[in-house]
């Protein structure tokens, strides 16, 4: 039986507080996945991540996920997490002993013959009681071996007072 999937309930009118900065999640020769920033908001976390590949790994990642090149040789993909042919970047997040897969609510990717970049945002509907979050990722078909990292977040105390509330529709 596979892992459950994290629900991604999020309120776009609430800007979370920064609770962790950049960190590498997994690295293989020619490719890496890193978290740019983790935001906490009442009820959950949002993570901004980036996958970067060069050389033969970029070609493999592009072949798995990007459309045909435009007239400048740039290939793009907007919003598609699944690569063509069933290949995808696997991302699992573990919080308080609960481990589940997560898929982005926003994603963009671009690349050429020698480089590939995918930026994506994910959300989970829980805050860690111990302040720790573990990220595990891999994309074997694009040359990224399984790797992971456990991050200790900045304090979540007083979170309600640290988020920014944007206007809501009446």
Q: Strand fraction band? A: over 45%
Averaged pLDDT, please? 82
Question: What's the helix-strand series?
Answer: EEEEEEHEEEEEEEHE
Number of H- or I-type helical stretches: 2
Uncertain residue ranges: 73-86
Evaluate the radius of gyration: 17 Å
Tell me about the biggest sheet?
A: 7 strands, antiparallel
From the N-terminal CA to the C-terminal CA, the straight-line distance is 43 Å
**Proportion in helices:** under 10%
Estimated structural class: mainly beta
Instruction: Report the strand count.
Output: 14
Shape: globular
Describe the protein in words.
The protein is mainly beta and about 170 residues long. About 10% of the residues lie in helices and about 50% in strands. It has 2 helices and 14 strands; from the N terminus they run E-E-E-E-E-E-H-E-E-E-E-E-E-E-H-E. The protein has helices at about 55-65, 160, and strands spanning about 5, 15, 15-20, 25-30, 30-40, 45-55, 75-80, 90-95, 100, 105-110, 115-125, 130-140, 145-150, 165. Strands 3, 4, 5, 6, 7, 10 and 11 form a 7-stranded antiparallel sheet that branches. A 5-stranded mixed sheet has the order 1-9-8-12-13, with no helix packed on it. It has a two-stranded antiparallel sheet with strand order 2-14. Strand 12 and strand 13 (about 145-150) form a beta hairpin. The longest helix is centred in the middle third of the chain and has 10 residues, at about 55-65. The protein is globular, with a radius of gyration of 17 Å. Mean pLDDT is about 80; it is low at about 75-85.
């Amino acid at each position: 039986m596979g892992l459950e999937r994290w629900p991604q309930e999020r309120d776009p009118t609430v800007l979370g507080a920064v609770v962790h900065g950049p960190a590498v999640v997994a690295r293989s020769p020619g490719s890496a996945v890193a978290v740019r920033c983790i935001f906490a908001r009442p009820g959950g976390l949002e993570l901004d991540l980036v996958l970067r590949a060069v050389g033969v790994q970029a070609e493999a990642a592009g072949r798995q996920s990007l459309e045909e090149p435009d007239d400048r040789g740039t290939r793009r993909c907007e919003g598609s997490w699944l690569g063509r042919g069933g290949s995808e970047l696997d991302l699992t997040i573990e919080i308080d002993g609960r481990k589940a897969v997560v898929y982005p609510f926003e994603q963009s990717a671009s690349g050429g013959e020698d480089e590939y970049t995918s930026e994506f945002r994910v959300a989970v509907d829980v805050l860690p009681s111990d302040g720790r979050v573990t990220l595990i990722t891999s994309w074997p078909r694009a040359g990224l071996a399984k790797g992971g990292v456990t991050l200790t977040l900045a304090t979540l105390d007083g979170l309600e007072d640290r988020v920014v509330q944007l206007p809501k529709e009446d």
